[in-house]
Amino acid sequence: VLERARAGRYRQFSLRSMPPEAAKRFLTEEIAENGTPHFRVTDDLRAVTRFEWFNLLEGSTFPLTPQDMIFCQNVLIYFAPERRSEIAVSLG
What we know:
Elements: H1 2-7, E1 9-10, H2 20-26, E2 27-31, E3 37-41, H3 43-47, H4 81-91
Antiparallel strand pairs: 1-3, 2-3
């Protein structure tokens, strides 16, 4: 999953909810070997984006640098309320 995310390639359907101005700013259109169009995240955006594995329950696995984070599929909903609080505190 991380390798796929790092590749930064998307089909048109995956971008159906993306505002056109954001797509124009952050994506470039390419043609795949089979002739179908796809979109790739721009090099500028890729340069400031990292995809990493870490355990939310073990703060020692978390890279301790200032950053914005995006959790896919609302990951915190899978934890008990008290664990969510612990995670929030460990993430600062």
